[in-house]
Amino acid sequence: MKIIKKALKHLFIDGLGAMALGLFATLLVGTILEQVGKLFPGQAGAYIIVIATVAKKLTGFGIGVAVASKFKKAPLVTVSAGVAGMVGAFASPIINGTLMADGIFALAGVGEPLGAFVASYVAVVIGGLVSGKTKIDILVSPIVTIAVGAAAGLLVGVPIAAFMTKVGALINWGAEQQPFIAGILVSVLMGIALTLPISSAAIGVSLGLSGIAAGAAAVGCCANMIGFAVASFRENKVGGLVAQGLGTSMLQMPNIVKRPQIWIPAILTSAILGPISTCVLGMVNNPTGSGMGTCGIVGPLMGFQAMTEAGVAPVAAIVQIVIMHFIAPAVLSLIFSEAMRKLKWIKYGDMKLHT
Prior knowledge:
2 domains; 79% helix; mainly alpha; 0% strand; globular
C-alpha cells in the first residue's frame, strides 16, 4: 500500500505539480506578454508579441524540463525530456504530417499539455534509468530519453488530444443547453482543480473550454484564490493575501488535508457565482483563461479579451470582471468563513500558511 501511495504521489502530486510550473513559465507567461505587447505601438510591441509567441509554442518543452527538474534528473535527461515533451504536445500534427509540411512554428495552437506531460514523464523515468550508466552517456542519455518519450507521446498523445477535445466540446455544448446546472458544476469542479496539486490551466486548455463554460470555470477558480486569500487574512496578512490571490490557492492544500472544512467557503462561493456568470451575465472566457483564476491576472485579462471580442463594451466587461472575479468572491467567502469561525468549524490557525 505504501508503494502504491508513493507511486501515486510521484505521478499525480509531484508530476502534475511540475507540469503546472512548466505551463505557467511558457503558455501563461507568453499569454501575459502577448497582452503587454498589444499595448505598445510599432516595432516594440511586435517584438514582444514575437517573444510571447515563441514562449507559447514551447509549452511542451517547458513541461518536459519542469518535470525532469522536479525529479532532479541530470542535465542531459532534463533537456531531452523537453524535446520529448514537444513531441507529445504536437503528436497529432506529427502523425498527420503537418509538421513536415509547414514546420513547428507554423502550427496553430500550443499543442496538447497532457500529451506533453505523458511523453515527458515516461522520458524522465526511463532516461533516469540509463543516465550515467555508460561511458558514452552524452549519447546514450539523450537518445534513450528522447526516443522513449517521443514514442510514448506519439502513442498516447493522439488519443488523449481526441478524447479531451470531445469532452471539452460536450462541456461547452452542455453549458449552452443547461447554463444553470453547468454553471454550478463547471465553476465548482474547476475551482477545486485549481486548488488541488494538479493543473487546472492544463485542463482548461486541453478541454478547449470556451464561451460561458470557460467563463464559469474562470469564476470558480477566482472564487478559490480570492476566497482563500480573504478568508485567511487574519492568519496570513498581506503576504498571504498576495501569495494566494495572485499566486495560487494550492498553498492551502496541507491545511485542507488536515481540516477539509476550510474549503467550504470557497466551494459555496463557486456554486453561487457560477450560475450567475452563465445565466445572468453570460460571461465568457477562452481556454487559456478558464483555468487560471486571478493567477498573474491571466483569467481576468483573458476574460476581458473574450468578452470584448464577443461584443461586450469594454467598460461593462471591466465592471463585470472586477465584481465576479474579485469583489463577489471576497465578500461571499468572508461571510461564509466568518460564520464558520463563529460556529467553531474553523479555528484560528486552520488556514495559516507554512511556507
